[in-house]
């Protein structure tokens, strides 16, 4: 992966300047989604494009400016499980913040979280390709996210960043995610701190440019856009593929992500109450803003090398490109300059639906045996890939600098 660094990609002849014309496509869409559709059903209606996370942002900015983050990161490394006490030795103001930030919202419904676990167990095979790949690939055509990731510290290792977000996705539905022995409350709070650091650091990058629409990165609207690239995209694809879904389990899945949005610092008034209102929000804030950017094209190129150097024979650039085209559509694949794959593209288009139907016991025949085997193997290889990633402990460190390249 080293020789596929951002710098070497820049040398491939595609300069940011040449592709810079693409940047005009980046536009904000007005937020007209009503608080009535949110989880509490009420809210001020303030435009979340200009709402950030003032408490965490001010605190982290002070700690960065005082040079305290390396010590904080070192102490926080040992803080992993939800029920663990906040470690000693942290600056008092951070300790106080963590103390309440790690608490679940009072509307958490543990019965629904248990339904989410069943959803993950039953549908885990599809989640590898959906969280790990579809959501990750989609993030490269979310202009603000692509630019923020590319110019922040994590942009120099896209694979690691995508695995961490995919791991967070998996963890959301794991058995003990929000139980005292689970890790998700801590992971989400650490992510919240990292986002606060990015809001402070990125405006200092010579590459990232603020605008009247986007004075600072990672607004609450941006977080909800990315949120839709995760659970909403998973749900949309499962429905499109005809995967049978138990209503209680899909509601549980939604609930686990509502809690996660809260833990990432999103106000309740922006968190959709139902899948219907989530879809409405996605139609308004995700679908119309998808666009290519020079940065996103580079990041997608890095992601297509996900399987580089590992012994999973189906995760090749060609197959991953065909999957991108199949899952995200021709327009996105063309934006990302991913060519149509002559064998896999038509195969996915004609046989994926019947394959799911046979796999789910809805049809008894309809897919050639070799095709069935190959698709099943593809799902298995994604699971294997992410299982290997999942075994590694997730370490989220608050960044102290931008991408140096
Ligand atoms: C960091 C998840 C929204 C940009 C992270 C990390 C995770 C994560 C797990 C830690 C990764 C690491 O330490 O390498 C999420 C989730 C989101 C979300 C689940 C929404 C549901 C966003 C949005 C943006 C963004 C909307 C930008 C517009 C970043 C950046 C980093 C980061 C720049 C720091 C990477 C670094 O330089 O260390 N996020 N994120 N994220 N996220 Fe997010």
Describe this structure in words.
Helix 6 runs antiparallel to helix 8 and helix 6 (110-139) packs across helix 14 (317-328). The chain is globular and about 65 Å long. It has a domain at 1-11 and 109-181 and 201-395. It has 17 helices and no strands. With 405 residues, it is mostly helical. Mean pLDDT is 88; it is low at 1-25. It has helices at residues 6-10, 16-19, 54-65, 69-76, 92-101, 110-139, 143-151, 158-172, 184-201, 220-241, 247-263, 275-285, 294-303, 317-328, 330-335, 344-359, 369-391. Helices cover 56% and strands 0% of the residues. The structure holds protoporphyrin IX containing FE. The site of protoporphyrin IX containing FE has 25 residues, from helix 7, helix 8, helix 9 and helix 10. Protoporphyrin IX containing FE is lined by residues 144-145, 148-149, 152-154, 161, 164-165, 168, 191, 194-195, 198, 217-218, 222-223, 226-227, 230, 264, 396, 399.
* Ligands bound, unique: protoporphyrin IX containing FE
Strand % is under 5%
Form type: globular
Count of runs of 4 or more consecutive helical residues = 17
What is the C-alpha radius of gyration, as a whole number of Å? Answer: 21 Å
Number of strands: 0
Low-confidence stretches: 1-25
Mean pLDDT: 88
Write down the secondary-structure element order: HHHHHHHHHHHHHHHHH
Mind summarizing the main beta sheet? Answer: none
């Amino acid at each position: 992966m080293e020789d596929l660094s951002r710098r070497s990609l820049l040398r491939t002849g595609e300069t940011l300047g040449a592709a810079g014309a693409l940047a005009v496509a980046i536009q904000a869409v007005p937020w007209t989604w009503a608080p009535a559709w949110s989880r509490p059903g009420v809210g001020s209606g303030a435009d979340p494009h200009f709402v950030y996370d003032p408490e965490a942002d001010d605190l982290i900015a002070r700690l960065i400016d005082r040079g305290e983050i390396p010590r904080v990161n070192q102490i926080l490394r040992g803080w992993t499980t939800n029920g663990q006490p906040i470690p000693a030795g942290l600056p008092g103001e951070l300790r106080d913040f963590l103390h309440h930030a790690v608490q679940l919202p009072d509307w958490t419904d543990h019965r629904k979280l248990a339904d989410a676990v069943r959803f993950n167990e039953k549908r885990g095979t599809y989640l590898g390709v959906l969280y790990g790949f579809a959501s990750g690939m989609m993030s490269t055509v979310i202009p603000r996210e692509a630019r923020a990731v590319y110019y922040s510290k994590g942009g120099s290792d896209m694979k690691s960043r995508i695995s961490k977000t995919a791991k967070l996705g998996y963890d959301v539905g794991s058995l003990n995610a929000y139980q005292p022995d689970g890790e998700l409350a801590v992971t989400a709070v650490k992510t919240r701190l990292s986002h606060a650091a990015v809001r402070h650091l990125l405006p200092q990058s010579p590459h990232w440019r603020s605008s009247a629409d986007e004075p600072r990165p990672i607004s609450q609207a941006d977080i909800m856009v990315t949120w839709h690239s995760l659970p909403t995209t998973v749900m949309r694809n499962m429905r499109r593929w005809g995967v049978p879904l138990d209503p209680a389990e899909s509601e549980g899945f939604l609930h686990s992500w509502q809690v996660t949005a809260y833990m990432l610092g999103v106000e309740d008034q922006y968190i959709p109450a139902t899948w219907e209102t989530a879809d409405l929000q996605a139609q308004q804030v995700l679908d119309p803003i998808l666009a290519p950017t020079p940065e996103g094209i580079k990041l997608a190129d890095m992601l297509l090398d996900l399987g580089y150097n590992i012994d999973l024979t189906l995760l090749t650039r060609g197959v991953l490109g065909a999957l991108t085209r199949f899952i995200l559509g021709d327009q996105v694949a063309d934006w990302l300059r991913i060519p149509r794959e002559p064998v896999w593209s038509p195969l996915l288009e004609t046989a994926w639906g019947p394959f799911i139907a046979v796999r789910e016991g809805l049809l008894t025949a309809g897919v050639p045996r070799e095709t069935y085997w190959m698709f099943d193997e593809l799902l298995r290889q994604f699971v294997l890939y992410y299982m290997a990633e999942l075994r590694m402990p997730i370490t989220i460190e608050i960044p102290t600098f931008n991408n140096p390249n």
